[in-house]
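Quick one:
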Amino acid sequence: MTDTAFDVLGIGNAIVDVIAETTDAFLDEQKLDKGIMRLIDEDEAARLYGVMGPGIEVSGGSAANTIAGVAALGGRANFIGRVRDDELGDVFAHDIRAQGVSFASAQAKDGPLTARCLVLVTPDAQRTMNTYLGACIQLSARDVDRDAIAASRAVYLEGYLWDAPEGPAIFAEAAHAAAAAGREVAMTLSDPFCVDRYRDDFLAFIREHVDILFANEIEIASLYQVESFEEAARRSSEDVRIAALTRSEKGSVIVAGSGRTVIGAHPTRVVDTTGAGDLYAAGFLYGYATGASLERAGRIGSVCAGEIISHIGARPRANLRTLIAEQLG
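Output:
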């Protein structure tokens, strides 16, 4: 592959997470389904924020978390997303640039406020996400920088982005730009309910454009509407060149053609599973883009996911480069 300015360019929802610990009783009281992401409007965001416990604010968004992780590992990372010129927009822009990510997207002067996700974490470390997309819904295909894609080894797309009015057009523009420049396309399915909403569209896009697919075992089974993980993995091998499939405490499986590489989960104390899949993708993409074997890329992903679930929040606290050197050499 020719030399590039960036290892990975991510396109996705630019969100600030508000993370609070809670109880199962609170979820029941609010009629929230544990462990899923639901979309809410501005009024519901204000209402839920008013009744939830004290939280911490940290920049988030699935693809943004992954791209921040790539940068934390020492990779050259770029991100495209939309925020408003408000307080949370300033927080997001500052945080992602401070992480070492190139973020050239201009802050919108009008329209919906910067997106926020109210993340409720129960004692079993499950996270229940309530997302107000805000400014994200105005991201459009015009925001896709074809030159930036051409300057990147791979473009990474999050399934959640399909919820935006121009989400499908953004995916198409990015995929066509990547194909024109000879770059690879990576995609994460994001959430089983996202898969349920867009299964046929996802399958069509994946089969035509995606080189590397990220999913957990629930998402990949939902995509192919099968009960067996092995069957879902087999089906994925027919549609993409590489599928990186995570299985929580069972680790992950890298599927490439007829090959299977099993990666053990990195041992850690589980505090909050927010961002586990995002940082697994970060580690894998960083390893892959910098020439590592699929096995080593998966092991880097496993270590990164283990670091994230050991604390509250979806951005790393430990020095990932040091951690990888210590754990993997």
